């Protein structure tokens, strides 16, 4: 039976490396709990590392951005596209509207279909957020809501101008038409008196009455 005895320096190095890898893996597990669906990404237990496990310690673009955000899921980190695949980190992790907050709102819109925001070859199905109205919903804030007083609108009373009534002068009455006087009736013609019969010639001159002459 052969026994292989490892020298002390080599044993120390091996133990140190094992501890280092274990420490990295443990740290990675603690970090994913600070991300929406961080532990539910298929094929990657440590989404911030290039190997997906965190054993080698190398980080990808998402891991670097996460570190710059002080290992906190911020709106800026959520809206960024760390791996440049055309989808935001929030869309890939089920938080398209960037509303997830670990302590106050640990709610995601979906868990099935998430993808690795640090791997450009992995993307999510756009239909997952196609009908999500993020524009009408703002991300939650940890600061106290500000109270905005409604603007006071002062309306001046409307001034009514007096109505100007113009009275037309009464129509001028035309004087009545002057009636012409009746035509003057021409008086009847004066009847001439009957002509006087002259006595027969000779008798009167001799003084004989006309009656005697007839006898």
UniProtKB/TrEMBL annotation:
Top-level taxon: Eukaryota
Entry coiled-coil feature ranges: none
**In the record, which residues are listed under signal peptide?**
1-27
Q: Which residues form the Temptin Cys/Cys disulfide domain?
A: 26-119
Q: Does the keyword Signal apply?
A: yes
Query: Which InterPro entries does the record match to this protein?
Result: S-S_Temptin, Temptin-like
Where does the record place Low complexity bias?
136-201
Q: What UniProt keywords are attached to this protein's entry?
A: Signal
Entry annotated with the keyword Nucleotidyltransferase: no
| Record-given protein name | Temptin Cys/Cys disulfide domain-containing protein
Q: Where is this region: Disordered?
A: 114-215
